[in-house]
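Homework-ish question, so no full write-ups if that breaks the rules, but can someone show me the predicted structure for this set?
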Amino acid sequence: MLLRVILKRMLAMIPLLLVIATLTFMVIRVVPGGPFDQERNLPPQILANLNAKYHLDKPVLEQYWLYLGRLCHGDLGVSYKYVDRTVVDIIKDAFPVSIQLGGAGLLIAILVGVPLGTIAALRRGTHIDHLAMFVSTMGLSLPLFVVGALLILIFAIWGRILPAALWESPFHAILPAVTIAFKPMAYIARLTRASVLEILQKDWVRIARSKGLSESATIIKHVLRNALIPVVTLLGPVSAVMIAGSFVVEIIYAIPGMGRFFVTAVMNRDYDLIMGITLIFSVVLVITNTIVDVLYMILDPRISYE
Amino acid sequence: MSGLTQYSNSAESTESTVGSKLTCQAACAKSWEVLDGGTRYVFHLRDDIFWSDGKKLTAKDFEYAWQRLIDPVTGAAYAHFLYDVTNAREINQGQIKDLNQLGAKALDDLTFEVRLNKPAAYFIYLTAGPTTYPLRKDIVDAHPGRWTEPSNIVTNGAFKLDSWQHEYKIDLVANDKFFLGRPKIDKIKMFMIPEQSTAFSLYQNDQLDFIDNRSFTTSDIEQCKKDPNFKTQALLRAQYLGLNTKKAPLDDVRVRKAFSMAIDKSIFPKILRRQETPMSSWVPPVLIGYEPDSGLKFDPVQARKLLAEAGYPDGKNFPKTEVLYVSREDTKLGLEAIQAELKKNLGVRIELVNQEFKVYLTTRKMHPPQVIRASWSADFPDTDNFMNVFTSESGNNYTGFKNKEYDKCVEDARGELDSVKRANLYSRADKLLCKENAVLIPLYMATQCVLYKPWVHGIDVNALDIQNYRTAYLEGSN
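A: Not a homework solution, just the prediction itself:
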C-alpha cells in the first residue's frame, strides 16, 4: 500500500511540474528587464547576436515549446549569466551544499526542538518551561540575519572559536546550520510542548501510568509517538525549504548553495536558471511531503490515503 | 593572463598613488610600431612565452582570439571594442562571413599586425585589456563550452587557475615559468562574498588578508580608516545625474544650469567618506582634455536667479521632478544630500524613485524620467571612453541631448594624433556638455579603498580597478 501511495504521488508530480514550469516561464518574462540588460547598453547588433545565441529572438510561444522539448530530454538549459555553464552544472554544484546545510539544520532543529518542547511540557509552569519558551519565542521573532550576525559576533569575532563564514570544512558548517535551525527549532519546540500537554491528558497515558509503567517508557512509547504527529506534518514543508536552500543564511555565510543562486538568478533575469531551480524546488517539496505522508501512516495506522 | 601590452603599475606597492596616469608597456609584445598615419599597428612578440601546458605562444593565438571575439556566433558582449579594426564591424554584423577578412593577422609566429579603418588614438589601450587576450584554438575546440574549467584551460599569466568553485572561490597558483618572472606568492585564494558585512567579519577574524570597497559598508569606513593599512585609489568611475532635455521642467537649459550650480559637490567626500573627488566636468582630471573650468561651479545665488528667470522664483510652482536610481547605500546617501541641497539653495523638492537594477535599466531605456542617477566606469584610460557616452548615436545617452558640434569634436578627437589638438577638442566638447547645455551634473569620481593585513605588501590597484597580485608578497608575522 505504501508503494502505491508513493507511486501515485510521483505520477501526480508530472502535471504539477508542467503547470509550475508554464507559470514560471510566463511570469519571469513579464517582469521588466532581460538577461542582457546592463549598466552600459550593448550595441543593437551585439544584443541581436546574444539573443540569437540563446533563441530569445524567437516568439515567446516558440521559446516555450523549445524549452518544454528540452525539458522532456532532461536538458534544463544554460545560464545566460555564467557563460558556458549549464543549469544542470550549477544545480549539481549547489544542491549538495544546500542539502548538507539544510540536513544539518534540520537535525539540530529536531534534536533540540523535540526534547526542549517535551521537557517544557513535563515541567509545565517551572523555570525550565519558561526558559524553554523564552528561547523558542526568541527563535520565532528574531530575523535570520540578526541571529546570524549575533552568532558571528559572539563565536567568531569575540570568541574566535568558529569561522565567521565560508564553506571549507565541517567546522565551517556549525554556525550556518545553527542559524538555519533556529526558527524551525522554535516551531518544533512550541508544537511539541502543546502536543505533549494534550496527550498527557489522554486516558491511555493515565492507564499506562496506573499499570506501573516507568515514566520514561510512558513518555517515549505512549506520549511522544502520538504527540509527534503534528510535528511530522510541519517537517514536510520545513525540510523542503531548508534543503532547497536558505537565501539569507547562504548570503550571510557566503555559502554557494541553491538559495543564493536562485536569488541572483532572479536579479540577473537568468531565465533558464530560474526555471531549473524552481522545478528542482518543486520536486523536493513533493518528495518531502510524500515522505511525511508515509511517516504518518507508520506513526498512526488509522491514517490512509486510499 | 597577459595581453600584448599591460598597464604600468601605479606603484610597486600597496601605497598606490591617487589619480595616477596609466600607460601601456610591453607584455607579450616586446615592442610595437604605429605605421601608416596610425592605421596600422605591428606588434613584435617575445619568443620566450609559454602557455601553462608548455606550448609556445604565437601570434596565431592572438589572431584566433580576435576572430573569435568578432564572430557573431560567439555573441561576445564586448565585440564592439574592436570595431575600429578593418572589417570587424561588418563581420560582427553578419555582412562578411569570412573571419579571415578581419584586419588582425599573424604575419608569422612572432609578428601580429592590426589594421584600423582610421586612426584611433586610444587603440593601444585595448591591447592591455582582457578582451584582447590570446586564446588557444586547439583548447577551445577540444572542450566546447568547457574550455574555461581548471582542468582544461591554459593560461600565460603570472598565476595559473588551480580550482574554481563557481560563485564561491578561485584558487590561483604561481606560474613558475611566467615570462616576466615568477610571482612571490605561491598561492592565492579568492572568495566571492555577496554580503559586505560577512567579508568584513572574515577580515576581522583573520580569515581574509585583503579586502576592498565591496567588503565594507559606509558605517564600517571610519573603523577601517584607523587601520594604518587602509589605502585609497582614485578610480576612473564617474558618478553623475543625467538630465532629460526633452522633459519639462528640465527641457529649459536655465533650470538645468540652476540645478547644476545649486549642488555643492564638496559634500560627497564628507558624506560617503571614501575620499571621493568632487567633479564639475565630465572629463576626469587625469585624462586628456581636462580643464578645471569646463563645468559649472557651485553658485547658489546665480542658480536661484536662473531658476527665477525660468519662471520658478524660489522654486514656486516647480513641477514634480523625479530622480530615478538603483537602491544602493552610497547612492541613496548621496541623493538625499542632493535633495537637501536643492531644497536649501533653490527651494525645489525633488522626489527620489528607487528601483531594482533591471527594472531601473528598463525604465531608463523605455521611459527615461526627468533625472537619472548613473555612473560610468572606464574600460580603458582615455577620454574617448567618457565622451562617447553622450554622442547623438550613443545607446547610453538617456538625456535626449543631440548636438552636431559635440559629435564632431568627439569624432575628430578619436583619430587626432596631435595631443594638444586632441585635448582642445575634448575640452570644447566638455564645455558643450557640462556648461553650455548642462546636460549632466557630474558629481564625483569614486575610489577603491583597500584594507590589508600588516603582513601583506605590494598589491597594486590601478585606476581601472584592476588588482595586480604579481608584485605582492608576504612579510612579517601572521
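Now go work out the reasoning yourself. Hint: Chain B touches chain A through 46 residues (CB under 8 Å).
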